[in-house]
Design a protein that fits this description.
With 162 residues, this protein is mostly helical. It has a single domain, classed as Orthogonal Bundle (all-alpha NTP pyrophosphatase fold), CATH 1.10.4010. It contains six helices and no strands. Helix 2 runs antiparallel to helix 4. The protein is globular, with a radius of gyration of 15 Å.
Length: 162
């Protein structure tokens, strides 16, 4: 969690740049970020192939981790927008060890963001995202590395005309 705190702090700094660059020009900033989370969740799930019973192709771990980092980054952005701390009860995850069920739960919770965003809901989503990583046997170091790569991409985009 200590490394995630550092990533969150850097994410807040990057969010500050984004907000100063785009928020006043973009109506519905928060709502667009809620929708962006759902899009990133979909991209992540697609890479896991956990629902694709019709394919024999195995997921590419690097691609899954990259999309997972996008999901975490979007939730951290929402945490930052609401000026939340990163205190989480990691034991309060969805009660299933089936990754498909937990992902379905994340979709349900993520959809709720579109009608009523709350700290409790965001914490629940974050806890379950971290739980999904456990179910997929991601190592903490892998996740941190993927998040650092994502932040480098964001920094590059901020310094260009992306």
């Amino acid at each position: 969690m200590k490394e995630l705190e550092k990533i969150y702090k850097r994410n807040k700094e990057l969010d500050g740049v984004f907000i100063s660059k785009y928020e006043n020009k973009e109506p519905y900033y928060l709502e667009k970020n809620c929708l962006a989370f759902l899009i990133e969740l979909g991209e992540f799930v697609n890479e896991t192939k956990c629902f694709k019973y019709w394919t024999v192709k195995k997921p590419k771990r690097d691609s899954v981790l990259e999309e997972y980092a996008d999901c975490i980054t979007m939730i951290l952005t929402l945490f930052s927008t609401l000026n939340m701390d990163l205190k989480l009860d990691l034991e309060k995850h969805y009660d299933s060890s089936n990754v498909l069920f937990v992902i379905n739960y994340l979709y349900q919770q993520g959809s709720k963001l579109m009608t009523k965003i709350s700290e409790e809901l965001l914490r629940d989503i974050m806890v379950n995202l971290l739980y999904v990583a456990e179910l997929l046997d991601f190592e903490e170091e892998e996740i941190i590395e993927a998040l650092h790569k994502k932040q480098a991409i964001i920094e590059e985009r901020l310094n260009s005309e992306y």
